Task: inverse folding
């Protein structure tokens, strides 16, 4: 029983290395995971996005802002392959992306949420989030048909992961509630859960705080920061609420009428005359 | 009221996601299975077999199949009759071409062939949605019936254009054709239904089922989060057609014994099965059974009442029956658009909360 | 001109005539779909029901006579009078309006806001109901319908066209049924008047407003229920015309209700919401299936009309999902 | 079932009991916790291994024998393990009320000189770190749930997993050391230190020895024939002695399973799932459940309501007798059986009481109506009387001798003595060792012969031979005319009425009594909804004239009842008011166990009391409140003061037994 306090302290030093492993390293912003180069998107005669370039770096929270109709949503749809731009290149994790279907892009590790919640209304919270892991599940038709064995084992393995997300988002009490019955704020959270379930390399959030009251917005901000923090997920989000974005984003791109009018840290954006003009111009909005 | 759930808790995910998580339900299910497999075969007679039980079993399989496609995957199909015809004719050709082949194989192979046909007709679903697709599936219905009518090879060049089921046995007991004993056809169909229902439950609770439901609920979002619509839709068409093909084979081989394609597999059958799943409940295995039972029992009951009870001519009874069926369908849709399954769920919820109202 | 060419021409003409009839039925679908988003499967049965009612009224049949006889052991069949065609038609129209009101009161009103498939199923239920009800009311035997339209082949056309063929060719002239011609004329009048109605009357504009945007229509004070009654009444009228034409041609019987199935591929081709689509689609399908049956049918054992229209529409949609007149769909999330 | 006496005496510490249980019940469940959607389970063997691993981790971090380890959090298996793990190191666990505000918690941590703090999550870690400067002895903080703690400085902060790993890395060296400490452990060693919330003043650290806990727990377990197949739901604060004795003491002695709910909000659902066989709750919880039953049944259909009324009336008549095994007619029995099928069974099922074999309530008087309700359903609910200083058990009601107005006979090994002033004294194996660092208080409470003053006034009921408690001894006072003033007695009567949540009666040294009322938001809110009364807040609802009228009616009924008591008829309430805010522990008006701190209430609301006695029709009050996050604010209100009818004793009618 001669183990003293001093010795305990030296033990701490001894375990310093392990400590870093168990406490998680501080947040590091790395190389670009996604680069958009000179993207132009047209619908018939209308140009939704005009020659826009920017990048998203590993581990950062990147915001795309702009007034309504600025091309933010189109941009998100280009990133996840729902729209195919007529011009420009998209580089993802160091490779130029060829023409791909949205579900293939999802498989590459890009997940997203939607501005007008796009949950599967007939399914429970749990099933919705499980569906988010679709890209990670593998068992074939025959195993599924037999269930016992591989299919069940896979199901349970993924259920465990999903339950962690449910716990993380604090939605245990609605686990088995059909999502159609949930209030708006919770639906948004479930949708975030579904996107997280895919363990994405890049998470796209389309107006995650739209239509929320102040309290719900605060909750959502906390979850976004926590996701970025706990899982180190790279996040790109669209918002038209400037205030919130400036608080949580590392860097911000500003679009207006399909063109990029600003790109930089929140502070830089705040002082960008073009951005100020654009926002003043729509201040009645 | 009957539920005693205190202490009925789950310590692992396998238990939590089992088909009947409540012990009381589990017991009821075992009891029902015991009655179905061990009691009914002892008391069954030809009337019950031909007018109630076997049609119920066969239509249940078809309803399961259509429910997978329409209820789970959201693709409305009006081609059920045509796909049943594929199953029936496949079974007929297989039975006549390979007399030694075990009837189980025949039935499942027929399902497999129907699945391939179903996938082929499901291809347009990748471009066409909603009612356009529903109407498109009518193409399958009309084309297939026409095909089996016009190409004599399918009915082995018989003069009447009819196909007649040869006798096949399981463990030495005849299960097809007119000479099969009631209990044997019943047990044969029941076994197949049991296996298929179990498979349907398994498919719909896992990855594949969720990909179907995702497509059903919001196809664009489903694709963006990684569901391959091609695989999801075609697998639904395939599995659904497999079930319907099996139903068609049994309908022909065990129930009718002989069939003429335009009569046995017309568009009315397509609607009949659609009614079953709507009244039973879309996206519910139980609903498929409930709907099949309802649609099989109601005409029998009406007929007994009108013809047997009141002594009316059969044609008037038939017209009245049609009127009542139509009115009942509308009534049901108004009262409970989610079908008998939802009614059952609500009742169960009430019983579980008894004596509380919520 | 070679007989083959002339025969083809005849087939095309006949196809056009048939196509007009398809358009007529399809029109009924489109009207209801546009106004209430309901895919009305009962349109065909409505035509049957209208035709049955017309015949029944015309010949003075006692409604529900079979049922009455079965219950009371009586032997009633006819009142013993006959009505002029025009009076009978007007009365039938009245029945169809009452029917429209009942449908709105008893069915549609209770199904507001349900999924399209539920509404669709309800119309199938309605179809079953009307089929049984029509049979109960008027009996299920095949009836002859005669409203005084000329029928039979046109000798004049036969005579004229016989001379067109090359000398010595085995050709007896073109055959076109006068009834078809009349049907085409009536249908054309109907389509034109419906178009005028929807363009230039207040009710018509309200109908279009509802079709474009339910919410907006409600907000400017258009009563949705009235609109439904009107559209169903118009659809009933269209069904009556279709029933009369088809009934005059091949008798009033159950198979009349199957013309609805003929109209479906027309809808796919032309789009559920487009009136010109229904017309052009009908003509394409009419000509297409007749030509196919004429040219390829015999090789396949005939009766290809049963499915050709569907397969044509299917293939067409696969390559052009927006249909004939639809705009390219830009999907949004 | 417990082991033979000889074996029992060898198993005199918790580490020894744990290892014995792991040998005897190796694969039986010891702990369950609802987490991630299912009931995670640990067998006794796993609990032993987990606890030992933690113990080695603690030791690796330098925990020394005799030191104190604070345990802060909700009921969670690993926090229970931490207690035993501390004992493996020879240290003493000090569970702390997790909902305590920083100041209260700081006092306990400082006073107990804790060296380690085991916290459930970020919230608790933050509270500890906030007062770290005042805790010079605190060396390490260990947390269970890592969420949000990543960015914290981890020099003295550790995740539990990390601690286990530290121990594992030096297993060869540490294992013999914990084994040695375990073997050296004695019954007289300190087992745990529990801080009493105390109705007055600062809380005191009650030191209990292994013998205290183990002997009492064993005695009570034998009294109720508890078995290893039993199960309990651990949902009451870990810092409360009852939870320690039930969820640790008896669980270890008997070997039954302890389940922890997912969260406070899901407690009722979890209770239903687990369906415990042994259940404990303070009267407040039974009351809440009953209120909920009543509210939910209000909305039931006519048939159900009729069935419910008919069968509940029958149950009231014969239920308790059937439960006590008294003779009941065959017809009544049949009807009861039918009721069990249709109403009682389903009701117990929905509430989660289907399997309850032994249920206890204690801490305060329970309303006879409430008590009988549960008993009539066939739930074996009993009362016990106890306190922290006695390691819970002083008196217990034996099966078949259960009454609403008494608290039972002395527990195994307990002696009872009633002093001249009516105060109850006891002497038992569970009598605490001392108040930590507070010899004066220890001496005040426990005399040289081991008799402990309970502070409660009571007497032995001559009819049943059971103890009956009237009130806090010091609260039983005199009115101006010298007659007896027992506020608690009246308050408890008031609290049994649905609209009244809390009542505070004043009158010591005065000529008449007045009362403050807190309404029950659940019951009154529901009633308001039913009667289309709109309200935006508690304050608004409390001031509503109809609510006043309702409460007034209740008070008059109590007065009528009190008037019949020859000793206490002077305690009738003459005037009352409904407070504009709920009495709140955060404002110091109540203890953490929700007992009213009478003196503080009296001080804070003095103007109101004066106004009541002055006969004014209304009074203005401004009070400071503390919000959950510690911010302070002010609320002000003008309250209505009302008169109530008082009654003369009716000589012809005997006093109601209840």
Result:
């Amino acid at each position: 029983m001669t183990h003293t306090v001093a010795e305990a302290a030296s033990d701490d030093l001894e375990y310093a290395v392990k400590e870093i492993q168990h406490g998680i390293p501080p947040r590091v912003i790395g190389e670009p995971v996604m680069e958009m180069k000179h993207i132009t998107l047209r619908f018939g005669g209308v140009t939704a996005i005009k020659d826009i370039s920017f990048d998203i770096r590993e581990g950062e929270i990147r915001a795309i802002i702009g007034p309504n109709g600025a091309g933010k949503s189109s941009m998100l749809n280009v990133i996840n392959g729902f729209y195919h731009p007529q011009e420009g290149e998209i580089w993802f994790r160091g490779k130029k992306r060829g023409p791909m279907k949205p579900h293939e892009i999802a498989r590459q590790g890009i997940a997203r949420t939607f501005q007008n919640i796009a949950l599967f209304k007939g399914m429970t919270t749990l099933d919705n989030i499980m569906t988010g892991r679709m890209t990670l599940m593998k068992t074939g038709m025959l195993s599924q048909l037999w269930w016992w064995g591989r299919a069940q084992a896979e199901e349970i393995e993924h259920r465990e992961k999903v339950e962690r997300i449910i716990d993380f988002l604090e939605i245990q009490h609605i686990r088995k509630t059909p999502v159609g019955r949930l209030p708006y704020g919770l639906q948004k959270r479930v949708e975030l859960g579904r996107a997280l379930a895919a363990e994405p390399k890049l998470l796209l959030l389309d107006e995650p705080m739209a239509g929320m009251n102040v309290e719900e917005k605060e909750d959502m901000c906390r979850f976004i920061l926590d996701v970025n923090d706990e899982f180190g997920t790279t996040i790109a989000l669209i918002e038209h609420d400037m205030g919130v974005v400036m608080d949580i984003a590392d860097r911000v791109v500003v679009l207006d009428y399909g063109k990029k009018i600003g790109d930089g840290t929140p502070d830089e954006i705040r002082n960008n005359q073009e951005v100020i003009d654009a926002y003043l111009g729509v201040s009645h909005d | 009221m009957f539920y005693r759930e205190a202490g009925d808790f789950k310590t692992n995910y396998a238990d939590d996601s089992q088909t009947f998580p409540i012990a009381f339900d589990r017991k009821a299910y075992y009891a029902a299975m015991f009655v179905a497999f061990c009691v009914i075969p002892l008391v069954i007679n030809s009337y019950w077999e031909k007018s109630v039980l076997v049609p119920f079993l066969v239509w249940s399989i078809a309803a399961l199949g259509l429910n997978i496609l329409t209820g789970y995957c959201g693709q409305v199909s009006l081609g059920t009759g045509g796909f049943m015809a594929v199953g029936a004719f496949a079974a007929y050709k297989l039975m006549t071409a390979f007399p030694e082949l075990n009837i189980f194989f025949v039935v499942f192979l027929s399902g497999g062939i129907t699945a391939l046909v179903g996938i082929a007709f499901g291809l347009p679903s990748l471009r066409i949605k909603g009612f356009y697709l529903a109407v498109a599936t009518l193409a399958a219905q009309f084309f297939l019936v026409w095909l089996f009518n016009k190409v004599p090879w399918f009915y082995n060049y018989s003069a009447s254009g009819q196909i007649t089921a040869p006798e096949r046995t399981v463990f030495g007991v005849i299960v097809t054709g007119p000479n099969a004993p009631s209990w044997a056809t019943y047990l044969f169909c029941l076994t197949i239904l049991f296996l298929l229902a179990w498979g349907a439950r398994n498919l719909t609770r896992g990855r594949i089922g969720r990909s179907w439901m995702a497509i059903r609920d919001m196809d664009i979002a489903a694709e963006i989060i990684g569901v391959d619509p091609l695989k999801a839709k075609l697998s639904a068409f395939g599995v659904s057609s497999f079930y319907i093909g099996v139903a068609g084979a049994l309908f022909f081989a065990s129930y009718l014994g002989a069939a003429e394609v335009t009569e046995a597999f017309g568009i009315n059958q397509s609607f009949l099965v659609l009614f079953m799943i709507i009244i039973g409940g879309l996206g519910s295995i139980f609903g498929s059974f409930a709907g099949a039972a309802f649609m099989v029992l109601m005409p029998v009951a009406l007929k007994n009442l009108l013809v047997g009870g009141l002594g009316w001519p059969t044609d008037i009874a038939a017209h009245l029956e049609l009127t009542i069926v139509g009115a009942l369908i509308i009534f049901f849709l108004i009262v409970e658009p989610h079908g008998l399954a939802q009614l059952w769920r609500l009742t169960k919820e009430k019983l579980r909360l008894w004596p509380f109202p919520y | 001109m070679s007989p083959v060419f002339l025969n083809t021409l005849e087939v095309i003409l006949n196809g056009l005539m048939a196509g007009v009839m398809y358009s007529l039925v399809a029109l009924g679908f489109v009207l209801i779909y546009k106004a209430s988003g309901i895919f009305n499967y009962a349109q065909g049965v409505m035509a049957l029901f209208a035709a049955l009612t017309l015949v029944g009224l015309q010949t003075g049949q006692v409604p529900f006579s079979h049922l009455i006889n079965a219950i009371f052991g009586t032997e009633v069949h006819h009142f013993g009078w006959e009505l002029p065609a025009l009076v009978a038609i007007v009365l039938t129209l009245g029945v169809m309006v009452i029917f429209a009101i009942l449908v709105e009161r008893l069915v549609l009103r209770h199904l507001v806001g349900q999924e399209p498939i539920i509404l669709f199923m309800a119309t199938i239920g309605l179809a079953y109901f009307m089929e049984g009800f029509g049979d109960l009311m008027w009996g299920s035997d095949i009836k002859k319908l005669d409203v005084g339209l000329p029928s039979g082949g046109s000798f004049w056309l036969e005579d004229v066209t016989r001379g067109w063929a090359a000398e010595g060719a085995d050709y007896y002239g073109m055959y076109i049924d006068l009834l078809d011609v009349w049907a085409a004329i009536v249908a054309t009048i109907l389509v034109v008047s419906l178009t005028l109605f929807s363009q230039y009357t207040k009710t018509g504009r309200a109908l279009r407003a509802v079709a474009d945007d339910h919410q907006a229509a409600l907000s400017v004070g258009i009563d949705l229920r009235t609109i439904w009654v009107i559209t169903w009444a118009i659809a009933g009228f269209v069904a009556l015309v279709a029933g009369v034409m088809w009934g005059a041609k091949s008798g009033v019987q159950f198979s009349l209700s199957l013309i609805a199935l003929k109209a479906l591929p027309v809808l796919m081709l032309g789009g559920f919401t487009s009136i010109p689509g229904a017309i052009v689609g009908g003509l394409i399908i009419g000509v297409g299936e007749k030509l196919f049956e004429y040219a390829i049918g015999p090789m396949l054992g005939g009766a290809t009309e049963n499915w050709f229209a569907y397969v044509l529409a299917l293939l067409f949609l696969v390559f052009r999902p927006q249909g004939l007149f639809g705009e390219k769909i830009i999907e949004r999330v | 079932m417990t082991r033979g006496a000889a074996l029992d005496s060898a198993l005199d510490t918790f580490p020894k009991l744990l290892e014995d249980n792991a040998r005897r019940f190796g694969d039986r469940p010891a702990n369950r916790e609802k987490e991630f959607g299912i009931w995670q389970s640990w067998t006794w063997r796993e609990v032993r291994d987990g606890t030992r691993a933690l113990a080695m981790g603690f030791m690796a971090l330098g925990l020394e024998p005799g030191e104190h380890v604070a345990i802060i959090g909700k009921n969670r298996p690993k926090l229970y393990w931490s207690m035993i793990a501390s004992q493996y190191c020879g240290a003493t666990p000090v569970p702390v009320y997790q909902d305590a505000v920083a100041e209260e918690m700081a006092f306990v941590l400082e006073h107990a000189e804790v060296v380690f703090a085991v916290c459930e999550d970020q919230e608790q870690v933050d509270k500890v770190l906030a007062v770290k400067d005042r805790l010079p002895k605190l060396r390490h903080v260990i947390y269970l749930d890592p969420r949000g703690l990543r960015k914290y400085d981890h020099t003295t902060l550790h995740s539990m997993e990390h601690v286990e790993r530290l121990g594992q890395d030096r297993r060869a060296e540490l294992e013999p050391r914990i084994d040695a400490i375990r073997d050296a452990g004695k019954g007289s060693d300190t087992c745990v230190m529990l801080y009493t919330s105390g109705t007055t003043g600062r809380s005191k650290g009650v030191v209990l020895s292994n013998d205290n806990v183990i002997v009492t727990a064993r005695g009570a377990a034998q009294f109720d024939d508890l078995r290893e197949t039993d199960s309990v739901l651990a949902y009451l604060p870990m810092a409360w002695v009852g939870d320690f004795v039930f969820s640790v003491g008896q669980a270890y002695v008997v070997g039954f399973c302890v389940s922890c709910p997912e969260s406070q909000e899901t407690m009722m659902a979890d209770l239903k799932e687990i369906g415990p066989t042994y259940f404990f709750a303070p009267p407040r919880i039974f009351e809440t459940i009953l209120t909920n039953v009543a509210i939910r049944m209000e909305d039931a259909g006519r048939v159900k309501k009729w069935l419910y009324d008919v069968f509940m009336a029958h149950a009231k008549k014969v239920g308790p007798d059937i439960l006590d095994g008294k003779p009941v007619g065959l017809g009544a029995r049949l009807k009861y059986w039918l009721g069990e099928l249709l109403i009682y069974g389903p009701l117990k099922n929905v509430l989660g009481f289907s399997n309850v074999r032994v249920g206890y309530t204690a801490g305060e008087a329970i309303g006879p109506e409430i008590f009988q309700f549960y008993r009539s359903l066939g739930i074996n609910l009993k009362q016990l009387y106890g306190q922290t200083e006695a390691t819970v058990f002083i008196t217990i009601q034996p099966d078949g001798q259960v009454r609403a107005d008494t608290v039972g006979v002395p527990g195994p090994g307990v002696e009872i003595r009633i002093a001249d002033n009516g105060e109850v004294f006891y002497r038992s194996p569970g009598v605490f060792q001392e108040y930590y660092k507070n010899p004066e208080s220890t001496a005040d409470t426990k005399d040289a012969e081991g008799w402990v003053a309970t502070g409660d006034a009571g007497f032995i009921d001559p009819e049943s031979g059971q103890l009956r408690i009237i009130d806090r001894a010091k609260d039983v006072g005199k009115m101006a005319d010298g007659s007896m003033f027992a506020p608690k007695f009246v308050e408890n009567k008031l609290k049994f009425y649905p609209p009244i949540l809390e009542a505070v009666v004043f009158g010591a040294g005065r000529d008449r009594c007045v009362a403050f009322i807190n309404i029950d938001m659940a019951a009154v809110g529901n009633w308001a909804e039913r009667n289309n009364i709109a309200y935006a807040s508690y304050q608004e609802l409390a001031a509503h004239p109809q609510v006043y009228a309702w409460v007034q009616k209740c008070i008059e009924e109590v007065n009528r009842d009190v008037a019949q008591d020859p000793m206490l008829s002077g305690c009738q309430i003459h005037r009352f008011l409904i407070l504009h805010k709920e009495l709140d522990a955060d404002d110091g008006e109540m203890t953490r166990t929700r007992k009213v701190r009478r003196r503080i209430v009296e001080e804070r609301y003095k103007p109101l009391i004066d106004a009541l006695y002055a006969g004014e029709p209304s009074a203005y009050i401004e009070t400071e409140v503390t919000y959950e996050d510690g911010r302070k604010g002010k609320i002000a209100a003008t309250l209505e003061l009302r008169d109530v009818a008082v009654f003369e004793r009716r000589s012809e009618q005997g006093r109601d037994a209840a």
Summary: Chain C touches chain A at residues 330-331, 333 (CB under 8 Å). Chain C has 14 helices and no strands. The mean pLDDT of chain C is 82. Residues 66 and 139 of chain C are 7 Å apart (CA to CA).
